[in-house]
Amino acid sequence: MKYRWLIVALLVLLPSAVCARWIKDQVVMPVEATGPVVFSHNNHLEAVGKNCPSCHNAIFNIVVKKNPVFTMADMAQGKSCGACHNGTRAFSVKDDCSLCHPTRDIVFKVPDAGDATFSHEVHTGLYGCGECHPGIFKPAQGKNTATMTEMEGGRSCGACHDGNTAFTVGENCETCHAM
């Protein structure tokens, strides 16, 4: 009888302990538009009670190459991360984007006026990501160029920097440009 428990313990506990040793805490998922998303196994294992099968292989395949690519729209429909990040079980994929996606200052090279710096910290303190992305700004490097004339006409930064919502693009140049 006591050997039966020993066999059960070896068959159940030993594989779990051995498997847990090779799990990398952080998995980096490349996202072209925003930069890499860093997933923490430790945070998620704590949340689901160390229940690996709740995600593997039901939502995510352990073999990374077998996982399909999902868009944010797919996730909002409950696929991939959205299976749990639905606003009920965990924060929604529609919430604060910076919880998963990196934000940083963006420097636009402007040869004649000094480089212009966009501060995500300042803007996300006032607005949600969806107010600019993807309508006004596509979250992709090199996809958001505009002249000062175009901005004065309401394009790009000029969508908000119009004198009503925020100062105009034609005043306080040093606020954005390195002078």
Automatic annotation (TrEMBL):
Pfam families: Cytochrome_C7
InterPro entries: Cyt_c7-like, Multihaem_cyt_sf, Nanowire_3heme
Domain of life: Bacteria
Leader peptide range in chain numbering: 1-20
Cytochrome c7-like domain: residues covered: 37-101, 117-177
Keyword Signal applies: yes
This protein's UniProt keywords: Signal
Protein name listed in UniProt: Putative multiheme cytochrome c
